[in-house]
Design brief:
Shape: globular
Structural class: mainly beta
Distance between the termini: 13 Å
Oligomer: single chain
Low-confidence stretches: 1-6
Radius of gyration: 21 Å
Number of strands: 34
Number of helices: 6
Largest sheet: 5 strands, antiparallel
Strand content: 35-45%
Length: 479
């Protein structure tokens, strides 16, 4: 945390987070049970290389119910309320994508051993006509906002947002001004108060994606293609940007961290396209494709061409580098985004994936590689699955990676990972010249968990990270 008299959580500016942050020592990860025969749990992992328990799970908070499919997490307070000294980053919010339940976890009393504080039950969500909670962001006014992807137990698509009281964590209502301001689909979101804007993204009908990926449902419109632009103050949906079929499943969205920035990036997952979104001279918003990962022509797979499936993206705190994972192709890429309209590839690393040499899939035509990537091992264990969730240290030097996407899709595309458990890695980053290298000293094998293999997903640091905190302009004057 920043060292200043009377400040709230996080840092005043992204620059301060980048240059003055302390090195993370532990991280929290949701661990999902593939067969839903026991409760999911929150794992605490030691990432301090000077610690005797480095690269191990040091505690587990088992939740009380089965089938939650915990997925993404967020904080009750972050840098958006830096100017409020009464606020602290004391609770990790853990929504259950599958159960519509939300867990409130106390990480302040004992950060090494989180404790369950409160539970928001599914019927509390359904009372407001929402379900399938996903992305959590803390707000400057003290409330917590969570994107919701469904309409209730029926699991039809509905892109709304639930507000939680920042003190009691009870649902207060939905955020959009009227029903007309609710999008057909939901997923991620990012707000930028300086420009009075919030932009959300779209996955699809929960009743569809919980069955696995069916391309017929992509064709019939059961998955989204839009960015939804809101007036932040009025909570009104003011614009929809259609990315078209090649932009289907625009999932993770990131504004640049600079709180006055008028641009950012969104990864359209299925066909691995990166779009830059931006504010135009006329004052509305637009998007343009800036990175296009070509399909690979293959034999021995379900289709004659394999898309990359770009599942997570992240921007370094200094707004210099953009990272993303191609979950089917099996690589992580680093791009210099000094020129946001023309990202330059500066680093790439392969491990796992569906096109490994010697596997069931043969690549017959590849616009990028001359040979198929080889099988990789970490501490003599074969890497199953592929790079998926990303988290970057505030100083940009360590990129944390896990290999599970979503248990229902994991079973479809990487059944061996479901059987053997996912893994967590660290990628060492060259922040000066660009470049990525797998750290051979760190591996958490979630196949070796005491009660059996699990699928670890998103990564959070107690002090905030590169996707949890949204910065508000003018905070530096309040230090």
């Amino acid at each position: 945390m920043a060292a200043c008299g009377g400040c709230g959580p996080g840092y005043a500016t992204p620059g301060e987070a980048f240059t003055s942050s302390s090195k993370e020592k532990i991280v929290y990860l949701p661990c999902i049970i593939p067969d839903k025969d026991r409760p999911d749990y929150l794992a605490t992992v030691d990432v301090d290389p000077d610690s005797p328990t480095y690269s191990t799970v040091i505690s587990r908070l088992h939740f009380p119910y089965i089938g939650d499919e915990i997925h993404h997490t967020g904080w009750n307070a972050c840098s958006s309320c830096y100017d409020d000294s009464s606020r602290s980053r004391s609770r990790l919010i853990v929504p259950g994508l599958g159960s519509d339940r939300i867990y409130i976890v106390d990480v302040k009393t004992d950060p090494l051993n989180p404790k369950l504080d409160k539970v928001i039950e599914p019927w509390e969500m359904h009372a407001f006509g929402v379900s399938t909670p996903h992305t959590t962001h803390c707000l400057a006014d003290g409330n917590v906002m969570i994107s919701t992807l469904g309409d209730g137990p029926q699991k039809n698509g509905k892109g709304s947002f639930i507000l939680l009281d920042g003190e009691t964590f009870k649902p207060k209502g939905t955020w959009p001004a009227t029903d007309a301001d609710v999008a057909p689909y939901g997923y991620d979101f990012w707000y930028q108060p300086y420009h009075n804007v919030m932009i959300s993204t779209e996955w699809g009908h929960p009743r569809c994606f919980f069955k696995g990926l069916d391309l017929a449902e992509v064709e019939n419109g059961s998955y989204g293609t839009h960015l939804n632009v809101y007036d932040w103050k009025e909570k009104k949906l003011i614009q929809k940007i259609d990315l078209g079929k090649e932009g289907v499943m625009p999932l993770e969205i990131r504004f640049l961290h600079d709180p006055k920035a008028t641009e950012g990036f969104v990864g359209s997952a299925l066909f691995a396209k990166m779009f830059r979104f931006f504010k135009t001279e006329e004052g509305d918003w637009a998007a343009e494709k800036v990175i296009d990962i070509p399909n690979k022509e293959v034999e021995g797979w379900i289709l004659p061409e394999m898309p990359g499936v770009m599942t997570d993206i992240i921007i370094s705190m200094d707004d210099k580098y953009l990272y993303f994972s191609n979950w089917l192709h099996g690589d992580i890429r680093q791009y210099d985004i000094t020129d946001t309209r023309n990202p330059k590839l500066t680093g790439q690393v392969f491990f796992g994936g569906s096109v490994q040499a010697g596997g069931p899939v043969t690549v017959t035509k590849d616009q990028e590689l001359s040979v198929q990537p080889g099988v990789r091992y970490a501490k003599r264990k074969r890497i199953e699955g592929a790079p998926q969730m990303l988290q970057l240290s505030l100083d940009g030097k360590r990129l944390y990676v896990t290999t599970s996407l979503f248990s229902h899709w994991d079973k479809q595309f990487y059944p061996e990972m479901c059987k053997n458990g996912s893994m967590m890695f660290i990628i060492d980053v060259d922040t000066k010249n660009g470049g990525l290298q797998l750290n051979n000293d760190f591996l958490v094998d979630f196949g070796a968990e005491p009660d059996g293999p699990v699928l670890a997903h998103e990564i959070r640091y107690p002090g905030g990270d590169c996707t949890s905190d949204i910065y508000v302009a003018g905070m530096e004057s309040k230090k």
